[in-house]
Design brief:
The complex is a heterodimer of chains A (217) and B (238).
Chain A: H1 2-12, E1 17-25, E2 37-42, H2 53-66, E3 71-73, H3 75-81, H4 97-102, H5 105-114, E4 116-140, E5 143-164, E6 169-190, H6 197-213
Helix pairs in contact in A: 2-6
Chain B: H1 8-26, E1 29-32, E2 45-51, H2 55-58, E3 61-63, E4 74-77, H3 79-93, E5 94-99, E6 115-127, H4 129-132, E7 136-148, E8 154-167, H5 174-196, H6 201-208, H7 218-225
Classes of the chains: A alpha/beta (217), B alpha/beta (238).
Chain lengths: 217, 238
């Protein structure tokens, strides 16, 4: 009875999400990446959006949690340790640009220390596409409460491009899109029923990247 | 029974304190930009570079451009962060970075360096989500750099843009977002400067003229002519 109630609450607490993932990879490391490392970086060139740092961290955590042998370098640590070469203005846009970076001996030395074999660039964003409904909240001597109904939808679109750092070539592209509708009915207490759109996109992308990088999946 | 154990002067002081607190609550919100700036990873340019931060640069701030400073609801102080970032960048970008004691001029005694860099923030623009309906905080700055000898003679002068933005985020305050956008703009300024300095035509021409002799202020040169500070080896015929 208690389990059924918890399941009901869990179902009530999350909205529906639909998600699709596309993948195209070459030269998959069948034996895994060994003691090399992977770095996942967000593209931040667009003027009207930024790939969320939280999303980059989520994908990295997904990979590192599922396969403990894969070392994922933290995005901020990587960018700081190679400043100013991975700022939005200076970051390489094509795999061929890596050569230009490695011409600088301090950069080449740092890359050797970090043992980075794969560099994964993620570009995309989660946006709230539309919303409707209204809610009124009030407070008085007898108590407080809300009444109304709100709904909104979120859309996530992300693309990950995998660069092989040694071969200085692009070895794969994975894209994911997810959308979901969230609801918030309120009768005295607002009850948010949130669709985990970004989380679903993170899991979808992370799973595909894991399949590429790991020998166990 | 509770009795107040205060004398008349203490009561006045207390009332004054409360009044000041109330007035302070009506003043503008001040955001002091703070951030950690990494050392640049690059081969140092073989120069001993002096740097002089003018007062308006070291105390740089901006506020609501539609109002005066006193009327603005908020003030963003970037001066300390500017100095921290440029100190870190120039310290790693050149063989040696030296702070000047005063603005370079013929009458100012300053340390011996190849040249002195003087940065200025000529223009700053910002956009917040309330202005643009885009959920991004943006800061754009135009810097002007003067490269001069320690005597103040111009070597080069050029401008450079820097841009920083940060998206709105759940539970992030406006102050934190503006701070982050400013830090991103400063990092961009450093990245732009580090990758373009030697490509500024006047700077490139100056450096192509051979590694410049360490420039010395005229005040020192005058002392040299009197022999007081002469570094010529004794007994050497001119």
């Amino acid at each position: 009875m208690r389990t059924a109630f918890l399941l009901f609450i869990a179902l009530l607490g999350s909205g529906c999400v639909t998600s699709t993932v596309d993948e195209m990879v070459f030269n998959e490391p069948l034996a895994g990446i060994g003691d090399s490392t992977v770095v996942i970086l967000g593209r931040r060139h667009a003027s009207d959006y930024e790939t969320e740092p939280d999303f980059i961290e989520c994908v990295g955590d997904h990979i590192a949690d599922r396969d403990k042998t894969i070392a994922v370098i933290n995005e901020i640590d990587f960018i700081n340790s190679l400043y100013p070469w991975f700022e939005p203005r200076t970051a390489p846009l094509h795999p061929e640009d890596i050569n230009r970076l490695l011409e600088q001996e301090p950069v080449a030395q740092r890359m050797r220390e970090l043992k980075t074999e794969y560099m994964i660039w993620i570009d995309g964003v989660t946006i709230r596409s539309d919303s409707a409904g209204s809610m009124t909240c009030g407070i008085g001597p007898g108590g407080a409460g809300c009444f109304g109904f709100g709904t909104w939808s979120n859309d996530s679109n992300y693309e990950a491009v995998i660069w092989d750092f040694t071969d200085q070539a692009e070895v794969g592209r994975v894209s994911t899109s997810a959308s979901g509708q969230s609801y918030m009915p309120a009768v005295i207490i607002p009850i948010p029923i949130i669709a985990p759109v970004q989380g679903t996109a993170c899991d979808g992308l992370g799973e595909q990247l894991l399949e590429f990088l790991s020998s166990e999946f | 029974m509770l009795r107040l154990m205060t004398s008349a002067p203490e009561t006045r002081a207390l009332a004054m304190g409360v009044l000041l607190l109330m007035l302070a609550a009506c003043g503008p919100t001040t955001v002091k930009v703070e951030g950690n700036f990494p050392d640049p990873l690059m081969e140092p340019v073989p120069l001993t570079m002096g740097v002089w931060y003018p007062e308006e640069f070291a105390n740089h701030e901006f506020f609501d451009e539609a109002k005066t400073r006193a009327e603005s609801g908020w003030i963003v102080n970037t001066g300390d962060a500017q100095v921290a970032m440029w100190d870190k960048l120039l310290g790693g970008m050149f063989t040696e970075m030296v702070h000047m004691k005063g603005a370079p001029s013929a009458n100012q005694m300053n340390p011996v360096v190849n040249a002195v860099l003087i940065p200025h923030v000529d223009e700053l623009q910002y956009a917040i989500p309330q202005h643009t309906n885009i959920k991004v905080y943006e800061i754009w700055m135009r810097y002007r750099f003067e490269l001069v000898t320690t005597s103040g003679d111009p070597i080069a002068e050029w401008t450079m843009a820097a841009y920083g933005k940060t998206p709105t985020a759940f539970l992030r305050s406006d102050e934190a977002a503006v701070n982050l956008a400013a830090v991103m703009a400063l990092r961009d300024a450093g990245a732009n400067f580090a990758t373009s300095f030697t490509r500024v035509p006047e700077v490139a021409a100056w450096m192509d003229g051979g590694l410049p002799a360490l420039a010395r202020p005229a005040a020192e040169a005058e002392l040299d002519s009197t022999g007081a500070l002469s570094d010529e080896p004794e007994g050497v015929e001119p």
